[in-house]
Amino acid sequence: MTKGPVIAIDGPAGAGKGTLARRLATHFGLPHLDTGLLYRAVGLKAEKTGGSPAEISAGLEPSDLADPELRTDEAGQAASKVAVIQQVRANLLDFQRKFAAQATGAVLDGRDTGTVICPDAPVKLFVTASVEARAERRYRELRAKGVDTIKPRVLAEMAERDRRDSERAAAPLKAAPDAYHLDTSDMDADAAFAAALAFIERKGFRSTGP
Ligand code: C5P
């Protein structure tokens, strides 16, 4: 079997990296890891149990990743709080690197996948959008789910999470020097996928699937 690419997708919340990662994984037939889920699981469990985030991250169990509450904004905020702890990052690093080293290749998305987890990945994408565009998308998602919120609140929470993720000392959110920047402010999911795919194909990777 030819080894598929390792595709590392970094960027802030709401830029569309998760959707893009899932579509690229399907297109290339690659396993996909949403690395944010690991931080969400640690943050949520720490809040629920009052346990130490460092200890929780050292012993994460598969059932911790299945909690439906992981997708909530509260879990996202809890994740970004524990994500500043160096020991938590170190404990989660090994699992993420092993995932990336699979013989098939892999797609990983998160805040530091191109800079820290897979600095040698042949394909790195840095997916961004203006904070207003990201908050607007998030607001619509929440309303569609029936969550009662207001736009200024979603925008303020998004800006707060950006600040915490960018200013932290441990693996702050930033683009790898060789990452392809994709600004999705004025793109829908199809346009973002087409732009990313064109870049990956220029790098010489093509889907070998049907
Ligand atoms: O991507 P998601 O919104 O699920 O991430 C939740 C939080 O987890 C982020 O705001 C960030 O603080 C943290 N995170 C991280 N490194 C990653 C993935 C997520 O620090 N690779």
Can you walk me through this structure?
This protein has 210 residues and is an alpha/beta fold. It has a single domain, classed as Rossmann fold, CATH 3.40.50.300. Helix content is 51%, strand content 11%. The protein has nine helices and five strands; from the N terminus they run βαβααααβαβααβα. The chain has helices at residues 17-28, 36-49, 53-58, 73-82, 86-100, 113-117, 131-144, 151-167, 189-202, and strands spanning 6-10, 32-34, 106-110, 123-128, 180-183. Strands 2-3-1-4-5 form a five-stranded parallel β-sheet, sandwiched between helices. The longest helix is centred in the C-terminal third of the chain and has 17 residues, at 151-167. It starts with 5 loop residues before the first strand and ends in an 8-residue tail after the last helix. The site of cytidine-5'-monophosphate (C5P) has 15 residues, from α2, α4 and α8.
Count of DSSP-assigned helices: 9
* Alpha carbon gap, first and last residue: 15 Å
Report the C-alpha radius of gyration, rounded. 17 Å
Beta-strand content bin: 5-15%
Query: CATH H level: which superfamily?
Result: P-loop containing nucleotide triphosphate hydrolases
Query: What portion of residues is helical?
Result: 40-55%
CATH architecture: 3-Layer(aba) Sandwich
What is the fold's blueprint, element by element?
Layout: E1 6-10, H1 17-28, E2 32-34, H2 36-49, H3 53-58, H4 73-82, H5 86-100, E3 106-110, H6 113-117, E4 123-128, H7 131-144, H8 151-167, E5 180-183, H9 189-202
Parallel strand pairs: 1-3, 1-4, 2-3, 4-5
The protein binds cytidine-5'-monophosphate.
